[in-house]
Amino acid sequence: MLDIFDILGPVMVGPSSSHTAGAVRIGRMARTLLGEEPVRAEIGLYGSFAETGRGHGTDRALVAGLLGMAPDDLRIPRSFTLAGERGMEFSFYPARLREAHPNTALLTLDAESGRRLEMQAASTGGGRIRVDRLNGVEVSFTGQFNTLIVRHRDITGALAEVAREVSRARVNIAGTSLCRDRRGGDALMVMETDQKIPPVTRLLISEIPGVKRVTYYEREED
Q1: Of 22, 75, 136, 216, which one has the fewest beta carbons inside 10 Å?
Q2: Among candidates 151, 148, 154, 156, which has minimal Cα distance to 173?
Q3: Number of CB atoms found within 10 A of residue 120's CB
Q4: Nearest one of 53, 177, 34 to 107, comparing CA atoms
């Protein structure tokens, strides 16, 4: 079944939902997962993003998202200037990937606190996006749900402990995936939910033994 965005497309500034609206959302997702505004951004463009992105404003859209703008923000065409005023450094380069979506961006972000984020994401059409890789770990989530991302040690019961806290908050889990770099090493849990996860629940999850970091993405309002 088609939804309204398949027919009309998103409310946005720019000529292309894939190259502009989707690119804004990729930048905004990366900013959210970093947890603060980046001071430096290295952005790789792959496929159609690299070939026609400049003409469609993909580069300005990605920077706009890193500044926290939404796809309908009228300041998007001025994002380079605004980034300079905020002291954000950014650069672009052609990315080399294998078997990636043609509208893919690689973002490496650094924050003032020293925190770093590496994210690979694709604009899949109609303003939608998909995150494919996060800090070296393969993932798959879209931002169409509220999304909890938990980095933790690969130990028995970690998933059950997190799910228990979410359930106690009466939040329904829409989907869960778990990836790890090796047995007993670090693991990355991605949990998508129908309802927003309260701050107190996220705090309790961060205190679970073995949990190293909790990141939360709250879906955009319709």
Answers
A1: 136
A2: 148
A3: 23
A4: 34
Order of strands across the sheet that contains 116-125? 89-94, 38-47, 103-111, 116-125, 128-134, 137-141
Q: What is the DSSP secondary-structure string of 82-93?
A: HHHHHT-EEEEE
Phi-psi region of 64 (alpha: psi -120 to 50; beta: other; left: phi over 0): alpha
**CA atoms of 136 and 175, how far apart (whole Å):** 21
Q: In terms of Cα–Cα distance, which of 220, 184, 189 is closest to 202?
A: 189
Q: CB–CB of 103/25 below 8 Å?
A: no
Task: Tell me if the pTM is above 0.90.
Answer: no
pLDDT single digits (tens) 138-178: 899 998 999 999 999 999 999 999 999 999 999 999 999 99
